[in-house]
Amino acid sequence: MRTKVIPIVDLKSQLHDVQEAARLIASGEVVAFPTETVYGLGANALDSKAVNKIFEAKGRPGDNPLIVHINHISQWDELVDSVPEKARILAETFWPGPLTIILKKSSIVAEEVTAGLDTVGVRMPSHPTALKLISESGVPIAAPSANRSGRPSPTTAKHVLEDMDGRIPMLLDGGVCNVGLESTVLSLAGVTPVILRPGGITVEMLRQVIGQVDVHNNVMKPLQDGQKPLSPGMKYSHYAPIAPVTLIRGDYLKLIGFMNQEAGRLEDEGKRVGILATDQTLRSCNHGIRLSLGDREKPSELAFNLFARLREFNHLEVDAILAEGIDEKEEGLAVMNRMARAAGFHIIDL
Ligand code: TXA
Ligand code: MG
Fold first, then answer.
1. Which ligand places an atom closest to the C-alpha of 37?
2. Helices in the chain by DSSP H: which ranges?
3. b/e burial code for range 14-39 (CB count within 10 A of at least 16 → b)
4. Are residues 133 and 181 in the same domain?
5. 166 with 50, same domain?
6. Ligand 1 atom with minimal separation from the 42 CA
């Protein structure tokens, strides 16, 4: 299969291009498209066969459910059992945007989308091309991130092609995703709202609107043996570049000292070492191949850069990556959640 890549530069004059993609979706095919978080791999959420093609293209385990994307609030009512007050308020505040809300599902959602769970995650993305694609296809679109399972999520069309070239019929190239990390996944299916995956809509922002919001234990800790995950995504390895990542947390000065020492040691063993750290830290680093995550004081900048940097290290063919831990506040929690997984929870606390 050849993957047709269509750059969307001007949505208005290129409506026919989006319509071509929408026809593919409506006819049961899979199309990669930009969202404000990361690129998605979309198919008709009401069509089991189409949804199965997503799992095939990604190499994704069948028990990991997908998020359903809508372009209008009215579509939500059809997908879920009922929409409680808190969910309605959150949607009014944060949609369109990087927040996925999990509720009890209705029967029209394809079984494959929810991997047999009785809940469904729904979000309204804010990227204009994504919204147009959904409205033109006339169906809700199930879409995971458009990476091969286990790899960092794609934030550019080039990343999507690295993983999906020849596996899908079409890719809409909408440039760089401006959030850079996947949406916040919030479950409202239980008594207390709980964050299963932190993202661009932060815990702090959610609490301001609906009060109590818990952060699930497994956001920063691996599942224990035999523990059943609330979100199946928690149990899989994620976001991994090819080289092993070590995440280093703790006192800033100790961290710089440790990174230099460890990088020097690895280089003495003849290894190519990648250093993934903030601008501030990189100024004091004198070993390894250094890539910046951005300004330590701007967690949204760190979020924007993370996945692209992990992929860059693949091209630089490093043997090991040392990554700087950052504060778990605001988008910092989402960055640390992804880094901990990219490191397979290989974390050193200083
Ligand atoms: O920003 C995003 O959310 C992107 C873009 C494309 O919209 N999508 C995305 O999808 O990140 P994916 O499939 O890569 O991640 C979905 C996560 C997984 O961890 C999955 O386990 C969880 O959401 N999830 C989906 N439905 C769920 C449900 N009903 N209950 C619990 N967890 C669910
Ligand atoms: Mg993903």
1. 1
2. 15-26, 48-58, 73-79, 85-94, 111-114, 128-137, 157-164, 203-210, 252-268, 279-282, 299-315, 332-342
3. beebbebbbebbbeebbbbbbbbbbb
4. yes
5. yes
6. 6
Q: Are residues 214 and 259 in the same domain?
A: no
**252 part of a folded domain:** yes
Domain check: are 38 and 185 in the same one? yes
Give distance in angstroms: CA of 58 to centre of ligand 2. 10
What is the mean pLDDT of the segment spanning 158-180? 97
Give the distance (Å) from ligand 1 centre to CA of residue 185.
7
Residue 146 C-alpha to ligand 2 middle, in angstroms?
Answer: 7
Work out which ligand 1 atom sits closest to the CA atom of 185: 23
How high is the pLDDT of residue 278?
A: 97
Which domain does 142 fall in, by range?
4-219
Look up the CATH number of the domain holding residue 258.
3.40.50.11030
Ligand 1 pocket mutation, candidates 33, 145, 223, 238, criterion most atoms within 8 A of CB: 145
Q: How many residues does the chain have?
A: 350
**Do 34 and 178 have their domain in common?**
yes
> Span 314-339, mean pLDDT?
96
Neighbours of 263 (CB within 10 A): 22
Ligand 1 pocket, Cβ-based, cut-off 6 angstroms: 35, 37-38, 40, 64-67, 98, 100, 102, 114, 117, 119-121, 125, 143-145, 182-183, 185, 196-197, 231-233
Task: Tell me the CA–centroid distance for residue 22 and ligand 1, in Å.
Answer: 22
Give the strand pairing for 31-33 and 184-187.
unpaired
Residue 225: predicted pLDDT: 79
pLDDT, residue 192, reads: 97
pLDDT-derived band at 86 (thresholds 50, 70, 90) equals: very high
pLDDT of residue 57: 96
Q: Is residue 334 part of a domain?
A: yes
292 with 169, same domain: the answer is no
Q: Is residue 238 a part of any domain in this protein?
A: no
Q: Is the peptide bond between 96 and the residue preceding it cis, with omega within 30 degrees of 0?
A: yes
> Does the pLDDT of residue 281 top 80, yes or no?
yes
Considering the domain architecture, whether residues 279 and 192 belong to the same structural domain is answered as no
Residue 47 pLDDT > 90: yes
Domain count, the chain: 2
pLDDT band for position 110 (50/70/90)?
confident
Residues 66 and 27 in one domain: yes
